[in-house]
Amino acid sequence: MLDLGFVRDNLELVKQKMRERGVPDLLGDFERLDRERRKYLAEAERRKARRNKVSEEIAALKKQGLDASAQIAEMQELKLEITDFDAKVENADSSLRETLKNAPNVSHPSVPVGKGAADNQEIRRWGEPRQFDFEPKAHWDLGPALGILDFERAAKIAGARFAVYWGLGARLERALANFMLDVHTREHAYTEVLPPFIVNSSSLYGTGQLPKFAGDQFKLEGADYWLIPTAEVPVTNLFRDEVLEAEKLPVRLCAWTACFRSEAGSYGKDTRGIIRQHQFQKVELVKFALPEKSYDELESLTRDASAILERLGLPYRVVALCTADLGFSSAKTYDLEVWLPSSREYKEISSCSNFEAFQARRANLRFRRGKSGKTELLHTLNGSGLAVGRTWLAIIENYQQADGSVVVPEALRPYVDGLERIGPAMLEV
Fold first, then answer.
1. CA angle at residue 140 from 137 to 144, to 5 degrees?
2. Is 222 exposed, middle or buried (0-12, 13-18, 19+ CB in 10 A)?
3. pLDDT digits 0-9 by tens, 235-285
4. Which of 129, 147, 318, 323 is the most exposed place for a label (fewest CB within 10 A)?
5. ∠ at Cα 183 (172, 312), nearest 5°?
6. What is the spatial distance between Cα 201 and Cα 218, in angstroms, rounded to a whole number?
7. Which domains, ranges and CATH numbers included, belong to the chain?
8. In whole angstroms, how far apart are CA 176 and each of 179, 208, 336, 391?
């Protein structure tokens, strides 16, 4: 959430930032509510000043043995009026905070201004897309043909946008998760966490999914429980309402979890295959950083996620999202997009974001510089390191062979007992 004082003091700047995000009317009531609050506050302060003066008059009259009943009556009246105006100030503050609950973060000055994905800015590319001497197939054809991916049985037991992985397909998914976790913990200094896959409303509010995006989540009936859309939610909230010591920052955590998304509003987008599913697996990277170091941490987090793609030999590019394409809580985001031969385009496989203090303010995430220092809001960051299912399909498509088999990247072979190639499944189902 945005800082109330910052918005008051920089209202025109914040309005401009909202226009750049394509949401110009979100602060429509803010100015009126703030004017009312200032008026109530001035009235309360005026009466408090009069109360102090009357209090002195009462003391002086009593000291002289004179009647102070009129002043005492005025004091009682002032007390009631002050209580009333203080309540109005608090109500106005509450209304202002409610207005800000649905306001997205303010973008960092380095974020390109744009109206949509077409205005995102490519930063760099790695690797050259493979030139095939045959027509490459999509993973939704290759997987079923190899007997490692099954959409029909998934639809039978669950519904659309689910998948069943068989045999080496399931093994490859598990291998990818283990590989990613090993690289991030052994080489990138992240601490592995296995959090709950179910969280309460406070956790979703803390990272910005509630209240605005309730429709994108799966809620358990009859309880204040939600299935997590990403490990970002439980991991970021691990330190909610806590104070970390500055010398221990940054804290780097990584987690493998299943993720659950309703995909509300995405109908017709990526409906084939496993690009956009209701349930998928992801390895998430989360950082808690000092404010002055958070953008350095964003660059290193992005490199950490990129390293997985490079180790797997998958061509990708890094894109800086423009203002209108930023996520709700993000101040700046880099998307990693992997090359998919079937569609001949780059497709998002990770979003690496700096939320600055936006999530920390909602979740009360603080740090202290020294034992006697005052508490400050820390900065939170996260990124996929990587989305396991999308990495799976990128391997299937990029490493496919003319005979329909798929070569296993060398980096993954130790995780599949040295297997070099996936051919048609030996198990008939």
1. 100
2. exposed
3. 999 999 999 999 999 999 999 999 999 986 555 666 789 999 999 999 999
4. 129
5. 50
6. 12
7. 4-101 (1.10.287.40), 117-422 (3.30.930.10)
8. 5, 29, 17, 8
